[in-house]
Amino acid sequence: MALAQDSNGGEEGPGYALGDGLTATGWDLEARLRLRLHADLVEPRFGDLGGASGATAEGSTEFRRARALLDIRGAEGSALRPFRLRAQVDFKDLEVRWLDLYARYDGLFSGGAVIASDLRAGEFREPFGLEAMTSVSYLPFIERSTATNTFTPGRSRGGQATLRSAHGLFQAGAFRRTDGRPFPDETLDERALTARAVWQGDGQGLTQAGASISLRDPGGDLLIFRGTTGSRLLERIADTGSIDADRAVSSGLEALYRQGPWTAQSEAFGVWVNGANGVPGESFLSGGYLSLSRFLGAGETSWSRGRGALGPPKIEGAMRRGGGGLQALEAVARISYTDLTGGAIQAGQVLDLETGLNFYVSPTTRLMLHWVGISAEPADGPRDEGWAVLGRLQIQI
Q: Which domains does the chain have, with CATH numbers?
């Protein structure tokens, strides 16, 4: 069984997205292996937008993710309990590609307002933003928003400390960008200090609100801000290309609201790039999104207080014997805006709207059918529009 922190800060089993997996115990250790499969389809109608961006003009299908996640930790009651090791690989192309590989120690510090803490080191996501820190398997959308894809830093190598209080979460770390497999790989010169601070409520109403910041020194490497809209089967429409810059500062604001079957979340991002492409001064890029989802029956989005992100949807009570039905339907909508035009950077703007339905066939299987409309204005041309139908079969064990 996978472990996820519930809204009270404890640990609970998964709601829908992860099954029991494969579990083994011995030598004072517990090992859990979980598997994830995402099969996607896209049917685009991009017109002139497709020709300008290089987007695919024909329908296509492929495995978006085929991943294995291994968690090893000390057995309950053993001296090794605070230690954890996580490794995640993707093998969708029949070639192993490392994603996460890090060690974690729980209980680093406690006292006063701090009720829990941990320290981790290795390759993992930098602590920046709400949607970026939520597993795609728990999001009600096919992928993260264009704005999140464009402005959040993603995975890097480094160390991070996390402190948690009754109503707050603070994460901070130092990172270095890498290219390729975590160990061994090619280490780039880009370095960053990234931090996230979140206020947390009681799980209903305004559940959490917070901010993130990342101070980035390219160190001779090139900055790139690019994001995919709707599906990874579509080409990148928001893309600055390589930017020669002295330094950059990324910031983000986030808010999450939950009330029964309703969930709403929003983020705004801003990036200041200094000395872009040899031009003195700062270039400012920005973006953000607003999303809304509602279960049509007794389902409910869950929240992970320990991660400050969405958890696996709770749908067991909504499932009919032998299958789903109306109770297992979820309606979603999200609007995202990305502006890559500022100062010496002129890469255009993208506005997109995604809406659709998610059907939970079983506690481990989800079908998604979405529509995404895109309006893009390149820096050197007129605004073009297009749309696509997106689908996904998601299985987790």
A: 4-396 (2.40.160.10)
